[in-house]
Structure prediction request, 263 residues.
Amino acid sequence: MMGPAHSLSGAAAWLGVGAAAAAAGHTMPWPVLVVGALITAGAALAPDLDHKSATISRAFGPVSKAVCEIVDKLSYAVYKATKGPGDPRRTGGHRTLTHTWLWAVLTGGAASVAAVTGGRWAVLAILFVHLVLAVEGLLWRAARVSSDVLVWLLGATSAWILAGVLAQPGNGSDWLFDAPGQEYLWLGLPIVLGALVHDIGDALTVSGCPILWPIPLGRKRWYPIGPPKAMRFRAGSWVELKVLMPAFMILGGVGGAAALNVI
Prediction:
């Protein structure tokens, strides 16, 4: 899928989690719901770090382009080193390492550790990166025609404000994990969710997605999971633009309302 659809699906997924959490008795404070949705929207772009032409490659100028090139080479090296006898030859690393459940868990876990041990500045950094990505994904038309500096300033300002809101008592820094020293431990959850939602979205397209790596399936270790080929679509097709994106908006709205006990 394309960047905007990935971001919308990520935000909708977190709002759905909020509805489920409310039903289970772990209602999210509204700042957690909002911040989590924005982080998930941004994190849903992150698996495309292995693609030099993806939305994320443009988000931070030369820095993100360089990171994408490095991750592409790393992913390709991992693919070559671990591919099974049934896996095809490849010339690049797109839709390999960063499109797996293992990558999702590792990146989310790393963010949680950083948030807990790094204090306010680590939280600000996590928020800044993902809010910039959320702007690039959710407001992609405006982001394309505006200055990168303006997008970064919006991300930095929003991160500063939201971090301050979360730090207020009762606003959710200790949501779900309330033991001393576990503040912001939950920040890794929307990152994991965003990556997995991205992978599921890509699995619906023609090429599929090797979500289960390194678990082998038959002779393939990088098996492209997906529905029957007749049910798949091409990225950017009318199915994505006219069916899935409106559906994500509706589901996100319903999930958000349920999470806030409006319905």
In short: The chain has a mean pLDDT of 92. Residues 14 and 37 are 5 Å apart (CA to CA). The longest helix spans residues 101-138.
